[in-house]
Known about the structure:
172 residues, alpha+beta, 4-stranded antiparallel sheet, 5 helices, 12% strand, Phage anti-repressor protein
Amino acid sequence: MNIDIERCTVGAEHxxxxxxxxxxxxxxxxxxxxxxxxxxxxxxxxxGEDYREVFMKKNGNPRGGRPGANYALTLDAAKHIALxxxxxxxxxxxxxxxxxxxxxxxxxxxxxADELADLDRRLAAAERAEAESFARASRGASVLSRRRxxxxxxxxxxxxxxxxxxxxxxxx
Length: 172
């Protein structure tokens, strides 16, 4: 399921998938130009933003005249076309992209969960240190003020990661 990604500017992106390569990779048959126009309409793609026309330099038109046309698609547009394709390879791409997205979300979730656990440990340590500092207030105010300053920062980090985890849990 590999499609070459080429350096080509389309809209704000600097990498693109060539529509003819996607067409062949999806195992489509029939006229390429008709297929591409149907995909543009079906997916609501915008010229200049989602794709742009490019002309094939290699093996131009053997009968002379205008060289064959190809289209550079943004990565998102290529994914969109692959996701809505009804061909067997399109369904395989769709399953692959869904699995890849699920894996990415799990990685982010695990990383955030590990980060949250670490911050919870640090916050608990800061709270213990603060309690000890109150008990030993006679030792000086500098330790106490550092602990007091660290606690809100740690609590803010914990709350931020908890809210990110909640968003991830809602996506599943």
